[in-house]
Amino acid sequence: MEHHVSIWPVLVLALIHFFGTRLRFLAGVPRSVWLSVAGGVSVAYVFLHLFPELSEGQEHVEEAFVGEGFLRHHVYIMALIGLSVFYGLERKMVSAKEEQKEKKVDNKPPPGLFWVHMASFAIYNALIGYILFTREEGPLQQLVLFSIAMALHFVVNDFGLQEHHHDRYRKYGRWLLVLALVAGWGTGYLVTVSHTLVVLVLSFVGGGVILNVLKEELPEERKSRYWAFALGAFLYAILLLSL
Question: Which UniProt keywords apply (predicted)?
Fold first, then answer.
């Protein structure tokens, strides 16, 4: 099947990593209302657009995994795995920073842990890049909605990663994430995977989005504004339900 190339979505998401950390007006405490709005938009997209799509895709997954009773809800298991993986990574980062603080050294995780963290997010970005490619085969509206949600999600991720790793993220991490995103997107032109695998990837990413947004909103020291998060979620939900 002929595939129509739309390079603008991957360029927009890549530019988020190039320039996201330079948006100084988003930094500081209390947490920027714009970051909270962005988080709300991302979560609304997952619950109101991605999960219903996964529910439909569950039929394809069940056909590929016939008979495993406890795996009947494969897509939601993958979403749980995605959430759990990134929760584990976040806990490891926080623990490492606390240990460094107790040793009275710089408030950054060790270099080895930095690369593990970046590798995990690189895989995450590559999966999102591949999903972006698959979206090009569908309606333009679907591509635009996904691109907006992921662009705002990347802004939230950038500030979280910079807070953990500081100059390491600016010098190395963001470049790795850009390369991973483009590589995942480009892989779509070289490798065709089954719809079942695409659905499982979508569910993993959905779980990751939920955790990566909430972990930035919940810590008390962030002084996040719930109303901004709720407003972003509400407005994007209205948009999604009206289309």
Answer: Membrane, Transmembrane, Transmembrane helix
Closest by Cα among 185, 156, 158, 190 to 46: 156
Identify the band that residue 1 occupies on the pLDDT scale cut at 50, 70 and 90.
Answer: very low
Alpha carbon distance 22, 136 (integer Å):
29
| Distance separating alpha carbons of residues 176 and 109, to the nearest angstrom | 18
Burial zone of 17 (CB within 10 Å; 0-12 exposed, 13-18 middle, 19+ buried): buried
Asked if 185 and 130 count as a contact pair (C-beta separation under 8 A), the reply is yes
The answer for residues whose C-beta is within 8 angstroms of residue 232's C-beta and 6 or more apart is: 36, 37, 38, 39, 40, 41, 44
How confident is the model over 183-208, as pLDDT tens digits? 999 998 888 888 788 888 889 999 99
**CA 82 to chain CA centroid, nearest Å:** 10
